[in-house]
Design brief:
Blueprint (H helix, E strand, L loop, with lengths): L3 H16 L4 H6 L1 H10 L1 H20 L10 H13 L7 E2 L3 E3 L10 H12 L6 E2 L4 E2 L4 H11 L3 E5 L2 H13 L3 E5 L5 E3 L2 E2 H8 L2 E5 L7 H7 L4 E7 L15 H15 L4 E7 L17 H6 L4 E5 L10 E5 L1 H9 L1 H5 L4 H15 L3 H4 L1 H7 L2 H17 L7 E11 L7 E10 L3 H9 L5 E2 L1 E3 L2 E4 L9 H18 L5
Parallel strand pairs: 1-16, 2-14, 6-9, 6-10, 10-11, 11-12
Antiparallel strand pairs: 3-4, 5-13, 7-8, 12-13, 14-15, 15-18, 17-18
The chain binds pyridoxal-5'-phosphate (PLP).
Pyridoxal-5'-phosphate (PLP) binds next to helix 8 and strand 11.
Length: 486
């Protein structure tokens, strides 16, 4: 069946191809490669060359030819650049989802970025009292501002809201029961499930009510001497409609107080708001997202919320409420494991300052995006289209469309804001989207049927030139040259 002569010839070609692969030492002596060594270091260059040669050997084994000798400096430079590039990179969010968890949630304000820069560049009084010249607490830095903004007795900041919920339960409810409505046993995303966190904290979950309806009497009937707390969890990422009921927070607070007095021992009311907000969302045509200060006023003993959802700051978990309880959380051993660093505190403090000065809508990107008017968005989308037309993009490929942006980030599920998007027609939309993601500054957009949609609401104004340049290349140059990916 096999022809021995033909087999021999095939073997000889294979050997010839292998022999065309240069030795590492020879490559290192080439001037173009020596220049790369000066830039990236001998070790990384040698290692990368070995990897490239191994890959070439493998390719030859699969019947492909060896790279020509002149190709090596180019191959090496490309591989080095790839190895050296940061994996965490800025992207342009043209999806219209404002708090996009996959894309880093809230962009920081100018003031917050500046504060991070100043504090991270050198030493700071992170845990040092400048007046007394002695050791201080990192928790003091944003405490006063959070107290004033929310009218809470005290405040504590930890790594994120998941950590905040965990710390509250571990410190106050370990080994005891926590009542939660069956309609609030939520999964937030990324595997964060309230029942799991509760179990991990050492508290015992007691489910009350039904999936759609929970009444005050359901809570009352579930109370035992083992009950440490009633917890309300904001159903952040879904919405219940129809025959549904939940008691008001104020009624839960009254029940907790009444029971605590009758039993002569505390029963805490914990409110996990998820996003939470300090500002009213209704002036923007959105449903009311619960406000932190309202939860406290309604009688919650502790309220937990995220720093990088509607607050618009850095990743953090904020706990506000009763001073005595915050003190217990601060002294709990897990507080150290969940603590935030100086960059977070700097960014959070600057973000909170914008709220105190009444400048949140003007300065905090998340709120600027929410507040952007339809006219302003239309004008920007029109500007994008015009710039692309001026560059010679065929008019038939571009149109403007009324569409909807979303707040996202586990707040206001199903709520949208009217917007105007630039729609780009493409024969192979998913391939074009992949090309846009492969750019040095990747552009992430939405695909709908044959169109790529770009929502100006979530594109930072300073990113416009890069976005337009990317689109121009994809639509003009890319169309002509086939645009190599990479
Ligand atoms: C988002 C969310 C969390 C988790 O907050 P992170 O800051 O992402 O850790 C917890 N609870 C609720 C209700 C949430 O919406």
């Amino acid at each position: 069946m096999a022809d021995p002569q033909q087999e021999n010839r095939a073997e000889e070609t294979l050997h010839a191809e292998y022999r065309r692969l240069p030795a590492v030492d020879a490559l290192l002596r080439e001037p173009a490669i020596a220049a790369l060594t000066a830039c990236y270091g001998q070790e990384l260059v040698t290692e990368t060359l070995r990897e490239l040669l191994a890959k070439a050997r493998q390719a030859i084994g699969q019947g492909r030819p060896a790279p020509p000798p002149t190709a090596w400096p180019g191959l090496l430079e490309q591989a080095l650049r790839q190895a050296h590039a940061p994996t965490l990179r800025p992207v342009i969010n043209a999806t219209g989802v404002i708090i996009h968890t996959n894309l880093g949630r809230a962009p920081l304000s100018q003031a917050a970025r500046q504060a991070v820069d100043e504090i991270s560049l050198g030493y700071s009084n992170l845990e040092y009292e400048l007046d007394a010249g002695q050791r201080g607490s990192r928790y003091d830095h944003v405490r006063e501002r959070l107290r004033r903004l929310t009218q809470a007795e005290d405040a504590l900041v930890v790594n994120n809201n998941a950590a905040a919920v965990y710390l509250v339960l571990a410190a106050l409810c370990q080994g005891r029961e926590v009542l939660i409505s069956r309609g609030q046993l939520v999964e937030i995303g990324g595997g964060f499930r309230i029942p799991d966190v509760l179990r991990q904290s050492g508290a015992r979950l007691v489910e009350v009510g039904t999936t759609n309806r929970t009444h005050l009497r359901d809570y009352r009937e579930a109370l035992t001497p083992e009950t440490a707390a009633i917890m309300r969890v904001h159903t952040s990422n879904f919405r219940q409609l129809g025959f549904v009921a939940q008691p008001a927070l104020a009624d839960l607070a009254a029940l907790a107080r009444e029971y605590a007095e009758a039993q002569g021992r505390p029963l805490w009311l914990i409110d996990d708001l998820g996003s939470g907000t300090l500002l009213d969302t209704t002036p923007y045509g959105l449903a009311p997202e619960p406000r932190v200060q309202e939860s406290l006023a309604a009688g919650a003993d502790l309220v937990t919320f995220s720093g990088d959802k509607l607050l618009g700051g850095p990743q953090a978990g904020i706990i506000v409420g009763r001073g005595e309880l915050i003190g217990r959380l601060r002294r709990h051993p897990m507080a150290r494991a969940l603590r935030v660093d100086k960059m977070t505190l700097a960014a959070l403090d600057a973000t909170l300052r914008s709220y105190q000065q009444g400048r949140a809508q003007a300065e905090i990107p998340v709120w600027r995006m929410i507040a952007a008017s339809l006219e302003a968005l239309r004008a920007r989308a029109q500007g994008w289209r015009q710039a692309l037309l001026d560059w010679g993009v065929p008019p038939a490929l571009l149109s403007l469309r009324d569409d909807e942006s979303a707040v996202g980030g586990g707040s206001l599920p199903g709520e949208t804001l009217p917007t105007v998007v630039l729609a780009v027609h493409a024969d192979q939309p998913s391939q074009m989207a992949a090309r846009l993601r492969a750019r040095e500054v990747p552009v992430i957009c939405r695909i709908q049927q044959e169109q790529l949609l770009f929502d100006p609401r979530t594109v930072l104004p300073e990113q416009d030139p890069v976005l337009l340049d990317t689109l121009r290349e994809a639509l003009v140059d890319g169309a002509e040259t086939g645009h190599a990916q990479g």
